[in-house]
């Protein structure tokens, strides 16, 4: 196999995996994510803008990042100060739940600051 064919193969693999991730994200349902978001609101605020500085704002976050982080918490592979709590919370979430929640929070515009502005709007 020549360097040119390896390069073409590598590019094709990246394109296929990107399309698969896009298709999976496109099948997520923002409305269903909103319906499932009550479990998140107690720490991250009702619109993904946390009133507590130690909890991150998740409104407007990249949906693929949110999916990755939630799956990592659910599997116990992600660490950090709140990892134990996130592990417990994510045990009840299916892959579909995670996709829907990520789509919902990704559709919101980021809040302006912790605690002072809880406003976020759907993009």
UniProtKB/TrEMBL annotation:
GO terms for molecular function: electron transfer activity; heme binding; metal ion binding. Residues 1-28 form the signal peptide. InterPro entries: Cyt_c-like_dom, Cyt_c-like_dom_sf, Cytochrome_c_Oxidase_Subunit. It holds the Pfam family Cytochrom_C. Keywords: Electron transport, Heme, Iron, Metal-binding, Signal, Transport. PROSITE patterns: CYTC (PS51007). Residues 28-109 form the Cytochrome c domain. This is Cytochrome c. It comes from Microbaculum marinisediminis.
């Amino acid at each position: 196999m020549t360097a040119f064919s390896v390069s073409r193969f590598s590019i094709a693999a990246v394109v296929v995996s990107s399309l698969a991730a896009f298709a999976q994200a496109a099948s997520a349902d923002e409305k269903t994510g909103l319906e499932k978001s009550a479990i998140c609101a107690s720490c991250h605020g009702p619109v993904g803008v946390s009133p507590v500085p130690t909890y991150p704002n998740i409104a407007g976050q990249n949906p693929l990042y949110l999916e990755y982080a939630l799956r990592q918490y659910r599997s116990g592979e992600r660490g950090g100060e709140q990892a134990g709590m996130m592990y417990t919370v994510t045990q009840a979430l299916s892959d579909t739940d995670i996709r829907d929640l990520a789509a919902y929070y990704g559709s919101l515009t980021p809040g302006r600051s912790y605690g002072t502005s809880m406003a976020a709007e759907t993009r």
